[in-house]
Design goal:
The chain has one domain: Nucleotidyltransferase, domain 5 (2-Layer Sandwich). Helix 3 packs across helix 5 and helix 4 packs across helix 5. The protein has five helices and five strands. By secondary structure, the chain is an alpha/beta fold. The two termini are 20 Å apart. The relative contact order is 0.22.
């Protein structure tokens, strides 16, 4: 099982897939949402607790945490980086191997084009997971896309090392 995570300061998307030699199936997806009324520290604690509970429930073998590639707002980048730090720490505490693909890599892996539009990525997530329609939540769809990208990388590396 592979866990994908799309970190955010208010909303962190997650998606879990099963990977059987590039035959993917959806296990679970959603978002961890923190209250804007709480302090940054409280929000990070909520994120860590929610993620830890998810890790206990599903015990993923591998995780993909989308890397921060660019930012328009310095304040937002700092908050997303803080969320990424909490996520990386929670995964490391459970000894879960981590890949950190950049958004361009994820888009390339799913669509063949690193600058694909969000709707194209969502359609390919639905295609790979054999869903009737794309997932509505951008954050959860991005997390599933990261998991699929991670699975492709893992399968490729496994073949190289065989």
């Amino acid at each position: 099982m592979i866990l994908g995570l799309d970190p955010g300061s208010h909303k962190t998307g997650y998606g879990i897939i099963k990977n059987d030699a590039n035959d993917f199936s959806l296990v679970d997806y959603g978002c961890f949402i923190t209250s804007t009324k709480e302090t940054t520290a409280q929000r990070l604690c909520c994120l860590e607790k929610a993620l830890t509970n998810l890790l206990k429930k599903f015990s993923p073998d591998l995780a993909a945490v989308e890397d921060l590639f660019f930012f328009k707002n310095h304040k937002t980048a700092v908050r997303v980086s803080q969320a990424r730090g909490v996520i990386l720490l929670a995964l490391a505490k459970k000894n879960i191997p981590i890949q950190e693909p950049k958004p361009l890599e994820i888009k390339q892996a799913l669509t063949g084009y690193g600058r694909a539009e969000k709707c194209q990525v969502q359609k390919m997530v639905a295609h790979f997971l054999r869903l009737e329609k794309p997932i509505k939540s951008d954050d959860a769809a991005d997390a599933l896309a990261a998991a699929i990208c991670c699975a492709h990388n893992y399968n490729y590396l496994t073949k190289l090392n065989s």
